[in-house]
Structure formats: C-alpha cells, structure tokens
Amino acid sequence: MNRPESPGEAPRAEAVALAYNAGQSAPTVVAKGRGLIAAEIISRAKEAGVYVHESPELVALLMQVDLDARIPPELYVVVAELLAWLYSLEAGVPLPAPTRPAGG
User: Fold this and answer.
1) What is the largest CA-CA distance in the chain?
2) Rounded CA gap, 89 and 83, in Å?
3) Which helix (H) or strand (E) holds 34?
C-alpha cells in the first residue's frame, strides 16, 4: 500500500518500460513500477544500454496501461515521435527532441 507523501517529500519515482518489434501493431508495456521497482527498471535499462527518457507526463499515462498490454491508440503519436527520435540517435542523424504530451 502506498503511503501519502508528506509536504516537502520528493514524489515517488515511477518508470515504465516499453518493447516494440517490427510487425507489432503497437509497443507493449513490459515493466512498470514505483519507488525501488522504478529504480531497478531504470538501472537495468541503463546497464543494457537502453536510452532512458524522462517524461513524468508520459510515464503517468503509461502507468495506467496493464503489463503486457499494447499502448492505447491515444498514445501512438507521442510514442512514435519518441521512437523516431531514438532511432535517429542510433543512426547518427539528430532530430529535435520530442515534445512532452499536452494535457494528461
């Protein structure tokens, strides 16, 4: 059970890991968690050389998606922009960084 945060206390960290392979209809949530679990997800991603993108707004939306479920169509554009940006980094062709989702 999560305890409420005290004033002045840092918000609990959250992390979501997505997987996408060519041929899939949409990326899938393969891991998600708060606190120590989030720290472990981030640590393992960095150890594996996986880019870690920080966007509290996007993470908050993705935390609502069940594990092993595809992301909802409402998030296709923002996740596609992020993936395109990451692929461009890997290819050495820099693109402007993706924008954060509006609203939430």
Assistant:
1) 46
2) 10
3) strand 28-34
Contact 16, 31 (CB under 8 A): yes
Residue 63: both structure tokens together: 């935390």
Amino acid at 86: L
Q: With 0.90 as the threshold, say if the pTM is over it.
A: no
Output the tens digit of pLDDT for each of the chain's 104 residues. 344 444 554 556 999 999 998 899 999 999 999 999 999 999 999 999 988 988 999 999 999 999 999 999 999 999 988 888 888 888 887 767 666 555 54
Q: Are 15 and 50 in contact (CB under 8 A)?
A: no
In a 10 Å sphere around its CB, with 0-12 CB exposed, 13-18 middle and 19+ buried, how is residue 13 labelled?
Answer: middle
Joined together, the tokens standing for residue 59 give 């993470």
Pick from 81, 63, 84: which is nearest to 72 by CA?
63
**CB-CB neighbours of 81 under 10 Å:** 16
- Three-state SS at 29: strand
